From TrEMBL:
One GO BP: carbohydrate metabolic process
Keyword list, A-Z: Hydrolase, Signal
Positions of the GH16 domain: 42-278
First and last residue of the signal peptide: 1-19
Protein name: Glycosyl hydrolase family 16
Length: 278
């Protein structure tokens, strides 16, 4: 599905260099009581495209490389997004000439198919790696097409610079705190890299705060008061939809280098969404 020109234009600053990024001490929470309300376990025959009841696509190069000078052409081909037959969805970035671009990839989203306000949103996955590779698991407000960005709000559950395969960032964007002024924090694995094993990336979102987790370790909490202290507006009180993609190049990561190998894959075991159990 081709996105509107508005989508392309308003994202020009969305993924600029993350501002105010700091690494935090980690904290493990106790068990919460959650009820599963939506999931995709990606079971099916190898080569099958994602379930169209759950996912749609962004297609093309966007305006100015989706507003971020990205280098890929997003497709809905199985070469760029398909099941592997072992219970995973694989999003693949390929070096190839296609549609005027030098790379292809996929960006899938649940817009108009599944959107939820509050709850726990999680994905278990392995990231790609390498200079110029930019995977992300993120969300936009369901009123995006009406009010635009950043008024719609954005939650970046996970984004990673491929040249830093042990570190991810979690961020929010909204009126008064967006792009280079986003509210954000990074998390670095104590051992290992995000591309060599599966890790669980999640948020727990309620009326007045959003908690960010890696492997159920909470590393950041952003509250309504934090936004107010930035002279911003809390817009996280409406349904949001999910997005998963691999970008190639762009303002956040720079271009691929001679050390970047292709194809690059993000292997997703599952995506699950919960609401608080009554």
């Amino acid at each position: 599905m081709t996105r509107s020109a508005l989508f392309c234009a308003v994202l020009i600053l969305t993924f600029l260099t993350t501002a105010c990024g700091t690494e935090s001490s980690s904290e493990t929470d106790g068990e919460e009581s959650w009820q599963l309300v939506w999931s995709d376990e990606f079971d099916g025959t190898a080569g099958t495209v994602p379930n169209s009841d759950n996912w749609t696509y962004d297609i093309g190069r966007g305006s100015n490389g989706w507003g971020n000078q990205e280098l890929q052409y997003y497709t809905d081909r199985p070469e760029n997004a398909s099941l592997d037959g072992d219970g995973n969805l694989v999003i693949t970035a390929i070096r190839e000439s296609f549609g005027g671009a030098s790379y292809t990839s996929a960006r899938i989203l649940t817009q108009d198919l599944f959107e939820q306000q509050y709850g726990r949103f999680e994905a278990r996955l392995k990231t790609p790696y390498g200079p110029g590779i930019w995977p992300a698991f993120w969300m936009l407000g369901s009123n995006f097409e009406t009010v635009g960005w950043p008024t719609s709000g954005e939650i970046d559950i996970m984004e990673l610079r491929g040249q830093e395969p042990s570190k991810i960032a979690g961020s929010i964007h909204g009126p008064g705190f967006f792009a280079g002024n986003a509210i954000t924090r990074s998390y670095t694995l104590p051992d290992g890299r995000f591309d060599t094993d599966y890790h669980l990336f999640a948020i727990e979102w309620s009326q007045d705060k959003i908690d960010f987790y890696v492997d159920d370790v909470r590393y950041q909490t952003i509250t309504r008061a934090d936004v107010s202290n930035r002279n911003g507006t809390w817009v996280f009180d409406q349904p949001f939809f999910m997005i998963m993609n691999i970008a190639v190049g762009g303002t956040y990561v720079g271009p691929p280098s001679q050390q970047t190998t292709f194809p690059q894959e993000m292997v997703i075991d599952y995506v699950r969404v919960y609401s608080k159990a009554e």
